Amino acid sequence: MARYHEVAASLRERIQAGEFPIGSRLPPISRLQGEYDVSGLNTIREAQQRLVKEGLLHTQQGVGAFVISTTPLQETTDVLHSLESARSELTRAITALTESEIAAGPIAPPPDLLLTFWAKLFAEFAGFTVTTELHTEGDETADAPYVKLTMRGATPEQRDQFLRFWSRTRTGLNLVVDLEDHDG
Question: Is the full-model pTM beyond 0.70?
């Protein structure tokens, strides 16, 4: 393994452990060279650029490298990719069942069941909890029918990512989303 991969892995761990919180500046390259017993500047720079690509750092020439996140972008991408793959497999299975005429009627789960499935799957990957509540009559919140989705411990970014994903399902189901802190 290239040395810069090892340095990047170590810095990633230190960032995620809170040693370098969001908004903080990493030590200067010369100090990191000493900490990691690396003689060349490029090894540290390449490690930092790897973390920039992962969305953990932002660098400014002549100023330094700053922590902007503790969660690599790859993890978010992996969750979305996994959800899209699962959706594709589920759609393929439903299509196969429908085409083989196993059942007399159409095989399509109700939209609120699909929402519950995807929300719980997304939450499982992303590390928060969800509850869904079907409302068959409209009120001041939304037209009927609608589902109230409560995301407990999710970030606004996770909510937005789920809503982008859900909008691609084209179910026509009205959706109201509430975010709750971990403490409720």
Answer: no
